[in-house]
Specification:
This protein is mainly α. The chain is built from 26 helices and six strands. The strands form three sheets. A two-stranded antiparallel sheet has the order 1-2.
Length: 502
């Protein structure tokens, strides 16, 4: 097996440069499923090609109209969804009381074992830990694939770090009630919702920001990451003025539910100016809303966020034409995310041969697309999310506010690729924890060439290179059992170079 992995890794490294095939109707369906979704499930390419790729895309742009019964049945097994922010805040408050007792010394062990807070703390940690697995399960099973992709995109664009203090219990509420409801709506609404999210207020320390003691963390990231972009034309003085406008945007203590709260007494009521726009003195929370609306409609924001969307869906180096189309749609629709996406997906850059299979999958995209390729049925344990974490992307645990990167160079190195190959081989053999699979979609064949052809068609959409084929043939030469041969061929294909790209 060691030789198998090393040989396959060499093949992967040699084949990483993107190829530029001409697109057939089936190729177009495969491309759309890899970019707008987390890859095809068995027979899905043929179904989308028969339906029509444009029709499928339009359906994905209206996820509320897509039935998702299978996912809904599985979601019922996730206990975390039965708890709201107040419930989790109570558990967090209990954890803080527990820590205070431990600090008091001698009686700590007795109290921790006997006090009702002990089991409550453990339950809170387990529930919060469930949330990463829920994200993976939704990505694998949902029929609303584009919606799940956009939830992941915005989760990284408006990143919070789950392991920072109160965000241990605020992050689930943030994803469920801030990101998910606004993922396909107007950007301004999403921006305001994130600014008023207790998770964001805590993560970037705005709850500490008062007229008497200003904190600029959120103001800086709001301009640099969330809206204008690092080259968006703002100055350090703009950062200061934005921080002044947002003083008093805070949260309740956990014992009261940890909801967003505006503290009028902590607000700087003086006159401000941001990007040349004046904000008269004497106002309160309303000037923060006005600021966010100003930023949401600013040309630099349109360009920056459109560039990020084109980078996600088209190419690591966002084509100028794609960005221009997206910005034009933004202006026409007042920042309607669906219209911006529609413009990207209808544009020539999205379908250009040079951009097909031109992006490397993130660890989440790799694990989910691999699971979907073998009709995977994930369980509700954290084990599949742990695989994503081992491959380099522990969900909701990116410390910096910029979120996980989109570019290839962040994910491609020999160690990471070897880890992916190991995971792929284990998955195809039915040995990857947290998921059951089926290889029935890959036609069994007694001849190695016929089996490899079936794997190529089913798993890789006909994109297998001669180098990958040669590697698989060599590694199958000592396998006589038909099931093992199929599992090995599928595992090598998933771990190989073509499957790494989308």
């Amino acid at each position: 097996m060691k030789t198998l992995l090393v040989s396959s890794l060499v093949a992967l490294a040699q084949a990483l440069p993107a190829q530029h095939p001409a697109l057939t109707a089936r190729d177009s369906a495969f491309h759309a499923l890899n970019r707008l979704a987390y890859g095809p499930r068995p027979d899905e390419v043929d179904r989308v090609a028969a339906l029509g790729v444009t029709t499928w895309i339009e359906r994905q742009l209206s996820p509320e109209r897509i039935a998702d019964d299978r996912l809904a049945r599985v979601e019922r097994d996730f206990e975390i969804l039965g708890y709201d922010r107040r419930d989790l805040a109570a558990m967090y408050a209990a954890a803080r009381r527990e820590r205070r007792r431990e600090k008091r010394g001698g009686e700590a062990d007795t109290v921790a074992a006997s006090h009702p807070a002990g089991p409550l703390v453990q339950r809170g940690r387990r529930l919060t830990g469930e949330f990463a697995d829920l994200a993976v399960v939704r990505a694998v099973l949902s029929e609303r694939q584009l919606y799940e992709v956009m939830v992941d995109f915005w989760t990284n664009h408006f990143n919070v770090y789950v392991a920072k203090g109160a965000d241990r219990f605020l992050a689930p509420d943030y994803i469920e009630h801030t990101i998910r409801p606004h993922a396909m709506g107007r950007f301004a609404d999403l921006l305001i919702a994130t600014a008023q999210s207790p998770a964001m207020v805590f993560y970037l320390d705005n709850w500490r920001s008062t007229a008497q003691g200003r904190n600029e963390n959120y103001a800086r990231e709001l301009l640099e990451l969330h809206t204008l972009g690092v080259d968006g034309g703002y100055t350090q003085q703009d950062v200061i003025e934005v921080a002044r406008i947002l003083t008093g945007w805070s949260i309740q203590p956990p014992r009261r539910g940890a909801a967003f709260e505006f503290h009028a007494g902590a607000h700087d009521r003086g006159e401000k100016q941001v990007l040349g726009v004046g904000f008269p003195g004497g106002h309160g929370m309303d000037e923060g809303i006005g600021l966010l609306k100003l930023l949401a409609s600013h040309p630099a924001t349109m360009h920056h966020v459109s560039q990020e969307l084109c980078r996600r869906f088209v190419s690591d180096d966002a084509p100028d034409g794609c960005v221009d189309d997206a910005v034009a749609a933004w202006k026409r629709s007042d920042g309607d995310v669906r219209e911006v996406l529609r413009a990207i997906f209808r544009g020539p850059d999205f379908w250009a041969a040079r951009n097909v299979r031109a992006k490397v999958k993130t660890p989440l995209e790799f694990v989910v697309s691999a699971a979907r390729a073998v009709a995977g049925q994930p369980d509700t344990s954290p084990r599949l999310a742990q695989v994503v974490a081992r491959l380099g992307e522990p969900l909701y645990r990116h410390v910096a506010p910029d979120g996980y990167p989109e570019r290839e160079d962040a994910w491609v190195n020999s160690g990471a690729l070897l880890d992916r190959m190991n995971a792929a081989v284990a998955l195809a053999a039915g040995r990857l924890p947290g998921i059951t699979i089926s290889l029935d979609s890959v036609t069994a064949a007694s001849e190695p060439e016929a089996l490899i052809d079936a794997v190529d068609a089913t798993i890789l959409g006909g994109a297998m290179s001669a180098n990958t084929r040669a590697v698989i043939e060599r590694q199958m030469s000592d396998v006589s059992d038909p099931w093992q041969a199929r599992a090995r061929a599928v595992g090598l294909a998933i771990g190989g170079p073509e499957f790494q790209r989308q």
